[in-house]
Amino acid sequence: MPLSEEEQRILREIEQRYYTHDKKSAQRIGQTTLPRYLARNCAWAALGFVFGLVVLLASFEFSWVLAIVGFLIMVGSALWFTQNLRKMGHHGWQQLNKSVQSSNLNDRLDEARKRLRRRLGED
């Protein structure tokens, strides 16, 4: 059921107030997509898994309790990773790949090379 004219107007007013009140937050939310958010969560989960592994291996010899804590960190991180990966799904991966490809990584690398050559040439 579509919104009425009055409801659309109210929604636009709320949106405009939000943008004028908190510009940084509105910009951050506007630029963040769901696949990027989930990919960032997957990266944090992978980092947590590695941290849990380090805790497990470092403490295994002298403290079983700390080793178990490291193992639980690993299990929790693995579960968090798989949940975010499932949420992302196939469509999310495609959308994430499109956004990465549109960022023109090659152009950015070429610009960085040119700046570096200019700096080295001036010295």
What is the topological layout?
Layout: H1 5-21, H2 23-31, H3 34-59, H4 64-102, H5 105-122
Structure description:
The chain has 123 residues and is an all-alpha fold. It is 89% helix and 0% strand. The chain has 5 helices and no strands. The chain has helices at 5-21, 23-31, 34-59, 64-102, 105-122. Helix 1 (5-21) packs across helix 2. The longest helix is centred in the C-terminal third of the chain and has 39 residues, at 64-102.
Q: First CA to last CA: what distance?
A: 66 Å
The major pleated sheet works out as: none
Rg value: 23 Å
**Which stretches are low in confidence, meaning pLDDT under 50 for 5 or more residues running?**
none
Q: How much helix, percentage-wise, in residues?
A: over 70%
Query: What is the average per-residue confidence, as pLDDT, rounded to a whole number?
Result: 83
| Inertia-based shape | extended
Helix/strand structural class: mainly alpha
How large a portion of the residues is in β-strands, by DSSP E? under 5%
- Count all strands and give the number: 0
Total count of helical runs of at least 4 residues: 5
List SSEs in N-to-C order.
HHHHH
Question: Key features?
Answer:
0% strand; 123 residues; single chain; mainly alpha
